[in-house]
Each structure stands twice: as structure tokens, then as C-alpha cells.
Specification:
There is one protein chain. Helix 2 crosses helix 6. The chain has one domain: Alpha-Beta Complex (DHBP synthase). The chain is an alpha+beta fold. The protein starts with 6 loop residues before the first helix and ends with a helix. Helix content is 40%, strand content 20%.
Length: 230
Amino acid sequence: MTEQTSMEEIIKNFQNGEFIFLHDDDSRENETDIMLAAKHVTPQKINQMRHLGGGLLCVAISPDIGSKLKLPYMWDILLQTKSPSLTSLVNTQRNKNQRSTHSITFNNRTLGGATDSQRSDTISSLHKLCENYTENENFYDDFHSMFESPGHLQMLIGSPGLLDSREGHTELSLFLCDISKLTPIVIMCEILDNKRFKEKSVADSKSLANENNITFIEAGTILDHYKNNY
């Protein structure tokens, strides 16, 4: 599949649990990520993401979920320690569009671990908890009793306002969740080149997508849809 795929087809594929290859702007990371709506996580899907991607396996949550759980970004955690050895690690020169959305690492307290099954169970339990989070008065307490940190999954939190404030993979994928009417949790992983030991090129990412019948899209496709419709 190519980047000419219509937004209607992209949304349908995403809703149905298919992988999406998303390339961000050349002026940003110039990387392609493989992503999956968390609703459809299985150990087999995690295994596929590891082999097709090879980068860090991350779980993105919406800024609203992050806010209700009172989870900060990692750069904020480091700054709040007031420890010179940690605060000096934060690059305060980055503008908002370049700032990392990384937050904590986490596991399910009883199901979590490093295996594909354990990571799938952790993500599945997070998705189940968040399905009706706006109606759950105990959402904060439930999360903190079910999960622990550090863990084997990297959490990302979308920037407030999503694409109004940042145009990274995190915000693009969460916006795709929003328009697909899915719980705003996305699994993603960078696609790396095991021969050049760098990010896989756009051309090679497109070829990999075609070989595996996976939708490949450019960030501009989602951004154009957003600007034209919202």
C-alpha cells in the first residue's frame, strides 16, 4: 500500500487492527514508525512489531489520560528532582515541537515483564482500564494499584492540544485514534535498518510495507486532514 491511501481507508484499517507505517516530516526525526491501536494488542502483534521495527517499543496515551493519572513527562520529572546531576541532563533549549513526550516506564504489577506475552498483557490491561476512564471515579487509584514503575514499556504522553502544539509520531497517532473513535492508546516502534544501523530509509520502509501489505502514510496526509477538517 502507498501513501496515496485515502484517510477513510487508513481509519478503517486502523480500526480493524492492522499495522500502520507512519513517516514523519523530513525536518523532524525523518523516521518511520510502525503503530497499532492498543485495542488489538496480542503477543503475536508485539513480536511482529519487534521484528518489523526493531526500535524502542512505546505506548502512547492521550494528554487527558496522562493528566487524570497525574503523570509528568520525564524531562519534568528530572527537573523536579532539583538534583544538579539530573536537571543538567534536560535540554531546556528544545522548543515545544522538539521536546520529548517520554514519561515513565511501566509494567502491570502482576502480569508485566519483558516477554511478548507479558508486554501484551500489560498493554491490554491498560487499554481495558482506560476504555471508560472518563466515567471511572477511581481511575487514578485503579491505575496506581494495577501498574508499577520502572517497567519494560516506555510510556509516551501526547502534548496538550495534540497537533496544535506538536507534530510528532505521538500526536499524529493519537489524533488517528481520535478520528477512528478508539480509546486513545497506541503502541509504536521505530523502524530500523539492520544493515546500515540507522533508521530505515523512506524508500526501504515503503518496500517493507508493500512486502507485508501494510499501509504506509506520510505525516502530511494526517496533517492535511486535520487542517482541512478541524
